[in-house]
Specification:
Elements: H1 7-21, E1 30-35, E2 40-46, E3 51-57, H2 61-66, H3 73-89, E4 96-98, H4 107-117
Parallel strand pairs: 1-4
Antiparallel strand pairs: 1-2, 2-3
């Protein structure tokens, strides 16, 4: 009988491979994306010291108040603009995009495109 690995295990393995090649610095930190069934989370991380510089999620009160649902493409796009505005306020213009092992489509792509349109470069 063929044993099949779960989607979660496949995603974690992809993320591990991506992270071996990708790292954020103080000049160009890493924009990391995580999505659960109900919410999306985005962080901008300096991996040299291991600090989260900027974070936003659909759980934040100001973000949640603007959204009808927190787990769709529109919510992801709004989160992308929020994280980009917070990053620009802190003086961060360039980032490295870490898709977290997820396929670059749907919510992850919407977040990335919205962040680009709001002024982040990657």
């Amino acid at each position: 009988m063929v044993s099949k690995t779960s989607r979660q295990e496949v995603r974690v393995e992809k993320h591990r491979r991506i992270r071996s090649r990708l790292s954020g610095t103080a000049q160009r930190p890493r924009l990391s994306v995580f999505r659960s069934n109900d919410h999306m989370y985005a962080q901008i991380i300096d991996d040299t010291v291991g600090n989260t510089l900027v974070a936003a999620s659909t759980l934040d009160k100001d973000v949640k108040a603007e959204l009808e649902k927190t787990n769709n493409v529109e919510a992801a796009a709004y989160l992308g603009t929020v994280i980009a505005k917070k990053a620009l306020d802190k003086g961060i213009k360039e980032v490295v995009f870490d898709r977290g092992g997820y396929i670059y489509q749907g919510k992850v792509a919407a977040l990335a495109e919205a962040a680009r349109e709001a002024g982040l470069e990657f």
